[in-house]
Amino acid sequence: MISIRERGKIAVGLFIFSEINFFLLLIIAYVYYHSLPGPGPTAATALNPMRTGMFSLALFASSATIWMASRASRRPDSRGLAMWLSFTIALGVLFMFGQAREYYDLIASGVTVSRNLFATTFFTLTGFHGLHVMVGLVALSITLGLARAGKLHEHTTDGFGAVEWYWHFVDAVWVVVFSVVYLWGAVAS
Amino acid sequence: MHLLPTFAPASPQAHALTTLFIGVLIVLGAIFLLVTGLVIFMIVRFRDRPGAPEARQIFGWTALEVAWTLIPFGILAVFSVFMTFADHVADPMVPAGRKPDLEVIGHQWWWEINYPDSGVVAANEVHIPVGKAILIELKSADVIHDFWAPELGRKIDAVPGHPNTLWIEADAPGTYLGTCAEFCGVEHAWMRFRVIAQNEPDFDAWQRAQLAVPSTPSAPDGLAGARLFTDKTCVNCHAVAGTVANQTVGPDLTHIASREMLAGEAAKNTPDELFQWLKDPNAIKPDSHMPDFKLSDDEAHQLVAYLEGLK
Amino acid sequence: MSQIVEAGVAPNLIASERAGLLAWVASVDHKQIGILYIISSMLFFLIGGIEALVIRLQLLAPGLHIISPDTFDQMFTMHGTTMIFLFVMPMLTGFSTYVVPLMIGARDMAFPRLNAMSFWIQLFGGVILYFSFLAGGAPNAGWFSYTPLSEKAYSSLAGVDYWIIGIACIGIGTLAAGINFVVTIICLRVEGLTIRRLPLFVWMTLVNSFLMIGALPLLNAALAILLVDRFFNAHVFDPAGGGSALLWQHYFWAFGHPEVYIMILPAFGIISEVIPVFSRKPIYGYEFVAASTVAIAFLSFTVWAHHMFAVGMSHIANLAFGISSMLIAVPTGVKIFNWTATMYGGRIRFTTAMMFAVAFLITFTIGGLSGVSFAVFPLDWQLTDTYYLVAHFHYVLFGGSVFGIFAGFYYWFPKFSGRMMSERLGAWHFWLTFIGFNLTFFIQHVLGLAGMPRRVFTYPDLPGWAAMNLISSIGAFMLGISVLVFLWAIFDGLANGDEAGDNPWDAWTLEWATTSPPPPENFDRVPPVRGRRPLWDLAHPDRADEKVASA
Questions:
Q1: Which of A3, A11, A32 is opposite residue C111, by nearest beta carbon?
Q2: ipTM > 0.90, yes or no
Q3: CB pairs below 8 Å between A and C: how many?
Q4: What residues make up the domain containing A183?
Q5: In total, how many domains does chain B have?
Q6: Which of B116, C21, C85, C235 lies deepest, with the highest CB count within 10 Å?
Q7: In this predicted model, what pLDDT tens digit does every residue of C200-230 receive, in sequence order?
């Protein structure tokens, strides 16, 4: 029997399994329409893998910083915990800023969600990912607040563990999305 | 029409399906009788009554479990074999280069039928020669529809953006009823059609008649109706060969008088019912795309006279 | 006394000290939430039933104009959506919510507040869905909303939007419930209750929860994209804009097929409890019933395109899905055989619960067998989208899920309320239902073979069609009366029923080892668990299950 003290992580694990299925269908829609030729913008013409790649590095780095945060919490080192959590949030915000810039530039140049099927599936897929990042940032902020108020301790490490797993998942989804949309999509056209 | 068209196949394709169905039904029926028989036996034999022995605490028997897993598995394997045969006959591969004999396009809520070889354009009534396998290319102009004449073959969807092919055939001359079989909006119920199979000479005669351009009507009523056909904007949706009317929004009316039914079979093609249809389409087929032109009785009679002349 | 595992939530959050209506709204107690699910599901059952009666009234005879075609379309769309998402699923979830923590000797679910959220968001989704009647009309594109009919071009009113948002809410609640059940069952079992000793109702809930977790996100993805199409003028599912109508179908049915198993597995669990108890012997072949459930769960994700045999897929695709669909019949059949064999050598008591369980065996088998006729895909080409299909799914959903629900209701009503229902009224309910149900739906098999398509608001006067529709409509009204009798039986039970006591059925699982209804903390003490039937072992220590099995 698995201890009830792990219940947060198990729940998030199950939730991650469900979210994989959710993103799977969005990715399939993107890939399916990518293989059908059509007029209008494509990944190759509209996207900038270099720039998005830079901002992606921020998101990937935030997985490392949250890992550092969880190490700090286990020591326990509450100042280290708060510091690494802050870095994680900052990196996440940086990534979102990059996304916002990218969306703004695309829309300004006429690549809107209804422009063509590439645009629709692109915005839907990256948009839902961005939504998940934002939810993660909220969860991280709450965690940071609890940490700074000294309320993160043995009884709530399960909750922090759950947030950590979620954040790694959001990152992993971006690895897949970035590879499929920006790398493969921009090259194989 | 036969009470159960699924059991009255009139083509080799439908025949293959009926044969498969009868075989499957017999097996499924036997299984049903077995299960129901066992259940009834159990509840009668082991019901609680005074003097009944205590229940035997048995937990199972692995050999039995294996048996009743493998036997159904075997039955289904047999089904699989037979179903590939039926698939082959009911839906044979289209040979490379084989052009369709008919192009059928589903609209909300009528069927457009084009004969690429002869150039005939029809609506809702499909004529085919007897004894020949007819290849239909099935398309949709709007939403998903489905073409189904049960006595002649399988049903298949008309999917916009995804043309399908369908083989139908008729062993003997006759009228075979069909219907749209995929919910397509408010008047899905009245998107029926019929396939009229004719011997070769009759079919050729029908095609020739369908290609004939109707002459201008001579009787005063018919003439007035012809003028109304333009004035009342019927020409915006319908086509009549030999006139300015050439739109395909609604069914082609060049030979409307030759058809048995109207409005996707919501009405019979008699002067009376045609009059009712023109006066108040919503009473017969509510929310169909045919507008109510608020015709006076005289106007409606004149249009009927004109249309009934389009044989 | 066995160790009750700490729920990890402060006890005062579980038992509400406030009285009255507010206590129910604020409750996070699984028993109260279970009752809330059952009450709201019953309400939607009645509404969905009225929608069905309107449909059968309009189809009583050919050429009737009782309601307009558009109203008819709203009726069948709402009937299907309501019965699936607002009746069967929440009712079964309600049973699991109430009973599962008791069956495993726990104090509550792992996440009591999430539990409450699941209920309220589901209800909220139902309210949103029904609000559509006041906002231009209910959705009318069918309960699976095929595109492009459900795209803005052909469904310009907001009905479909309310459908999307309504079932998205319900989907989220269901997903959360699934997660809650899994964590509860793996973490909160009382000591001694190993996975191999789980009551089958708990086992089915566990497997079913994985189905929910896997399938609902597929629906949510499809809904999200359809919403983008409708609100932002996109065309992912719209051929007119380069999109694919079939992609919607694949996406929807990838959810839709596991969904029907989500609707039946808990009912299988109920049957697996009721038949042994009223046969007075253990379930036959426990391991095979449990294992076949897992097989069904995996296979349910491999059969979805059998809903699409008529769209013009390739021969290979048809063959593959035909074979996988036939395959899934095997584990289902195994269960039917095991339930039937459970009665062998028994001493069967025909309580109302047992009568519905026995009837289930027959009616669900009919539905399952007609399902096999669809799996043989060339037959599907004649049978799909006709009344034969309508008959099939009502036999598995009504003759299956609903009969299971009725069995569970009569079985657990004493535990929930502390009172017994009248067996006499129960018998009336049962026979009216059994006869009414078969009268309504058996003839529909023939109607389909006669060529009548589904979802038609009227029909031509072809030979036999009028008579068969009339018979079906009479059956439907008989079912309507049977539901009134059911309501009467419920109220009569609550008002006049005999006191139930802890274990009126002399059953063996842990929910019967406490008072009826249970106290807020569920158990005073949990009896020791050394087998699948703790209370049997307690009463017959010399013939305890695992002692006998290992002998």
A1: A11
A2: yes
A3: 103
A4: 4-37+48-187
A5: 2
A6: C85
A7: 999 999 999 999 999 999 999 999 999 999 9
